[in-house]
Write a structure and sequence with these properties.
Membrane topology (chain B): Multi-pass membrane protein
CATH superfamily of the largest domain in chain A: P-loop containing nucleotide triphosphate hydrolases
Helix content of chain B: over 70%
Shape of chain B: globular
CATH topology of the largest domain in chain B: MetI-like fold
Family (chain B): Belongs to the binding-protein-dependent transport system permease family.
Number of helices of chain A: 8
Largest interface: A-B, 25 and 17 residues
Protein name (chain B): Iron ABC transporter permease
CATH class of the largest domain in chain B: Mainly Alpha
Structural class of chain A: alpha+beta
Number of helices of chain B: 22
Largest sheet of chain A: 6 strands, mixed
Strand content of chain A: 35-45%
Distance between the termini of chain B: 42 Å
Number of strands of chain B: 2
Largest sheet of chain B: 2 strands, parallel
Distance between the termini of chain A: 35 Å
Radius of gyration of chain A: 24 Å
CATH architecture of the largest domain in chain A: 3-Layer(aba) Sandwich
GO biological process, one term (chain B): transmembrane transport
CATH superfamily of the largest domain in chain B: MetI-like
Oligomer: heterodimer
GO cellular component, one term (chain B): plasma membrane
Strand order of the largest sheet of chain A: 6-7-8-3-9-10
CATH class of the largest domain in chain A: Alpha Beta
Radius of gyration of chain B: 25 Å
Number of strands of chain A: 20
Shape of chain A: globular
Strand order of the largest sheet of chain B: 1-2
CATH topology of the largest domain in chain A: Rossmann fold
Strand content of chain B: under 5%
Chain lengths: 354, 541
């Protein structure tokens, strides 16, 4: 199947600054994509370029196989059939819920309008709210109305700019799943921008991490978590620490001892940095373990504790422990290391891209 | 991008014309005139102006800060009334308050009559303060202008984080010490802003000074221009007055910048402390006194006069005058609002440096005394008129008369210079609530720019456009000196009529037109108090 959205070597310059650099990815029809990255990495600018608000200086953007942006041309936003949802929802404060949703479908006959409004409101669980005004709604309700409004004209592509960032954490994940369900039900392809990986994991089929205008990796969230190809991706996604080690004779020598792993077979001898996730470290009974560590920090996470453990050489790793028997700080524990996925980076490529 | 410089030029020409004319008169000093003025009037003008600035400054600070503190910190019987009642003097032009106090406190006024009959005194046989004096002018300006300080300081006190004040208390500072050491310093930039606004009004005042016989620059400019017919002298006096104003503008800009620095979002509901007994009575007294002096007493006097002259209200001539004034005000308001819309949209689309410079220049107009604008406009307009007459005579053999300086065009021009900033501020704040994201959203929903304008912008701007219209309308109705100088022959406004009646010692006849001005002036005060109410609700949650 051909991609619905295809970006090829897109570069964006604003006021002489290069915001996005040689960026390419494809999004298949019906998929939900997600761009993550710290603020200022260029992800919102990229989204605005796809919507047609910002021109691109190089490369091309194709929607449904049709060129919509390149260095010379830019199809106006209103002709692109993209829906967009903003961080602040941008509901029109002077229009009630029904009229907000109606805004994009006023060219339809009025019976069809009414039907579509009702159908959408039912789907987001807010039927009966037609006559309410935006200021009478809670944040979560406003967010869903904004989504319904953007969905009403049945756009080819839905763009969501930090759609949940103004909501509180609990609501966020719940709504993220709701929104995913709705988009899937309507069969709409969507691209989401966020700095929150929980949001990305809850919604995305494909995700990528952006850093200073570059897309470091574009893959499924599972791959991003377990097989990051870049140290910055490893750092940004999930919890974990990066430790130093050396590969000698296809074995990894480090503070955790000597580690064997299949991926090391092809590696020559050199210094590396490698990723240790909390789920790679298992706390065991002290007696039958060759590796020990001291608990130096403890964070309660409800279903579990997240411990910071200090190894004999003073480097630190994270580990997960059961919620009902907390370990006190200063306790000596034994640990086992079990690398399902071992991710190593060359020590000399840990610099930031510029 | 191409429209930015064009806009700059347009606005700079509009706002700058009178200023440039006045400033040029300083660059080209007529030494003999200046020397003469220095020997005769200028020292006195400066002396009086300084006394006024210092005394009014102190007076409005005391009245404004004490009331703002009581209203923002305490709860006492009648709180709801005073919290907006303290704004009422904004509806009273200073010169009208001056007339009412003269009526009350003069020889023949009810107060002295009562004193004489009670104590059986003879006229001239006792001491009574003369209201028509420098001291009287200070009193009138203080009770009329303190709301500027009250309004801004109150907002500052309410926005101050309670935590700052409360942490001072936990560190052992008593309420008084906390007030002086924490609340006041934090509010100081806001207080300074309010006081400079009041002082700008003080410098611009003509009606009160003229009526009380206090010689200052505004009255001097008028006298030099009309009494002596000395255009250059008037312009040079205007230039000196402008120097005073520029100092105030600089102070105001500086303190506004600092005010921004000090202001924080309020971090929660600020609890006002309920007062009881003598404390409550004291707070109520502090707040009711300025309302009484600044509004209730003068307004009652106007009402009494208007009832005494009841026949005025049925005269078609009076209604014609009212209609005239409203029509002029609405016309000026429409012009300034259209200009403001143009500028505000320009800034929204292309916020270039020259454009922002042009807009802050437009913001200056309000600080410049009406009389300075008037004399600064009159000579260039007259010059242009003569060129038009020459051309028309040469081309068509017709003398069209004074098309600019002799018609309402001159008045509308002056009002636009002076009140553009009022409408610009209102329109800009209205436009701010229409976020760029709303435009973007509408575009992703397939709306064309025209549809966005009609369906999104105009409905959302409606209330601020209306507010801007009313504010300018009221300001035009109150405006006295520029109207006096620039009005066409035989053209009157309510303000001019009230001024003429009072100058002829027919105070009661000044009542109906003055009451009309105050009545219309109450509309924006009501709007303001409503806005304040929603503001305190918003900061409360």
């Amino acid at each position: 199947m051909s991609a619905l959205l295809s970006l090829k070597k897109v570069a964006i310059q604003l006021a002489g600054h290069r915001i996005v650099d040689e960026l390419s990815f494809d999004l298949e029809p019906g998929d939900i994509g997600c761009l993550m990255g710290p603020s200022g990495c260029g992800k919102t600018t990229l989204l605005r370029a796809i919507a047609g608000f910002t021109p691109i200086s190089n490369g091309s953007i194709e929607l449904h196989g049709q060129l919509v942006s390149d260095s010379g041309k830019s199809v106006p936003t209103e002709q692109r059939q993209v829906g967009m949802m903003f961080q602040d929802f941008s509901l029109f404060p002077h229009l009630n819920v029904a009229d907000n949703i109606r805004f994009g479908i006023e060219h339809l006959p009025s019976t069809e309008q009414e039907q579509r409004i009702k159908e959408l409101l039912q789907r987001i669980g807010l039927n009966g709210y037609q006559k309410r005004f935006p200021h009478e709604l809670s944040g979560g309700q406003q967010q869903r109305i904004a989504l319904a409004r953007a969905l009403a004209p049945k756009p080819q592509l839905m763009l969501l700019d930090e759609p949940f960032s103004s909501l509180d954490a609990e609501l966020r994940e719940l709504l993220a799943q709701d929104v995913r369900f709705l988009l899937k039900e309507e069969g709409i392809t969507a691209l989401l921008v966020t700095h929150d990986q929980q949001e990305a994991f809850a919604m995305a089929d494909k995700a990528g991490v952006m850093y200073s205008g570059q897309l470091l990796q574009w893959n499924t969230p599972y791959e991003l978590y377990h097989e990051p190809q870049h140290q910055l991706v490893a750092d940004f996604i999930g919890r974990g620490v990066l430790l130093q080690g050396q590969i000698r004779e296809h074995q990894l020598h480090c503070a955790l001892g000597v580690i064997d792993h299949e991926i090391l077979c092809e590696q020559g001898n050199h210094d590396v940095t490698f990723l240790v996730r909390p789920d790679d470290v298992i706390i065991t009974d002290r007696a039958d373990s060759k590796l020990t560590a001291v608990v130096t920090g403890r964070g309660f996470r409800g279903s579990h504790y997240l411990y910071t453990l200090e190894l004999p050489d003073t480097s630190q790793v994270l580990a997960v422990g059961a919620s009902h028997q907390p370990l006190n700080e200063g306790t000596q524990v034994g640990i086992d290391i079990d690398f399902d996925h071992l991710v190593v980076f060359d020590s000399d490529v840990c610099e930031l891209p510029d | 991008m191409t429209r930015g410089p064009l806009l700059l030029f347009g606005v700079a020409a509009l706002i700058g014309l009178p200023l440039i004319v006045v400033a040029l008169s300083l660059l080209n000093p007529q030494w003999d005139i200046l020397a003469h003025l220095w020997q005769t009037v200028i020292p006195e003008y400066i002396n009086h102006s300084l006394i006024l600035l210092v005394s009014v400054g102190i007076g409005v600070t005391i009245l404004g800060v004490s009331t703002a503190w009581c209203v923002s910190q305490f709860d006492f019987p009648g709180w709801r009334w005073v919290s907006w009642g303290l704004l009422l003097p904004l509806a009273m032009p200073a010169y009208i308050t001056a007339y009412t106090y003269t009526g009350l406190l003069d020889y023949a006024g009810p107060v002295q009559q009562a004193l004489r009959s009670i104590f059986d005194l003879q006229i001239g046989g006792y001491w009574f303060p003369q209201i028509r004096s420098l001291g009287g002018a200070v009193f009138v300006l203080c009770v009329v202008l303190y709301p500027y300080v009250y309004l801004i300081t109150r907002a500052a006190f309410m926005q101050q984080s309670t935590a700052a004040f409360e942490s001072a208390r936990t560190m052992g500072a008593g309420p008084w010490k906390s007030f002086w050491r924490v609340a006041m310093p934090l509010a100081r930039p806001a207080i300074a802003t309010g006081v400079t606004l009041a002082l700008m009004e003080t410098l611009a005042d003509y009606g009160t000074m003229e009526y009380f016989g206090v010689t200052v620059f505004t009255t001097g400019i008028f006298r030099t221009w009309y009494g002596i017919g000395d255009t250059q002298g008037a312009l040079q006096l205007a230039a000196i007055l402008l120097l005073f104003v520029i100092v105030l503008i600089l102070v105001e800009r500086y303190s506004r910048r600092r005010a921004k620095f000090y202001q924080r979002r309020s971090d929660g509901q600020q609890m006002r402390k309920p007062l009881k007994g003598r404390q409550a009575a004291a707070a109520a007294l502090v707040c009711w006194l300025p309302i009484l002096l600044g509004f209730l007493i003068p307004a009652s006097q106007l009402l009494i006069w208007s009832i005494e002259r009841a026949e005025t209200w049925t005269q078609p001539e009076f209604w014609e005058l009212t209609f005239n004034t409203l029509w002029l005000g609405l016309l000026a308001a429409s012009i300034t609002v259209l200009l403001a819309l143009w500028l505000a949209y320009g800034r929204r689309r292309h916020p270039t440096k020259p454009l922002r410079a042009a807009i802050s220049l437009a913001g200056l107009g309000y600080a410049i005394p009406g009389i300075v604008i008037a004399v600064g406009l009159l000579s260039p307009l007259a010059w242009m008129d003569h060129r038009i007459i020459d051309f028309s005579r040469w081309a068509f053999d017709i003398n069209p008369g004074l098309l600019l300086s002799g018609t309402v065009v001159a008045l509308l021009f002056a009002y636009s210079v002076r009140f553009l900033s009022v409408s610009l501020q209102t329109v800009s704040s209205g436009l701010e609530q229409i976020t760029p994201q709303m435009d973007d959203t509408a575009r992703t929903l397939g709306a064309s720019p025209r549809r966005i304008l009609w369906r999104v912008h105009l409905p959302l701007l409606r209330s601020s456009l209306l507010a801007a219209l009313i504010l300018v309308l009221v300001d035009v109705m109150k405006e006295l000196p520029a109207t006096l100088v620039l009005r066409p022959f035989d053209f009157n406004t309510l303000a001019v009529r009230a001024f003429e009646m009072a100058s002829d010692e027919r105070l009661a006849d000044a009542g109906p037109p003055a009451l009309m001005i105050v009545a219309v002036g109450l509309i924006p005060v009501m709007m303001l108090s409503r806005a304040l109410k929603t503001q305190s609700i918003k900061t409360g949650d």
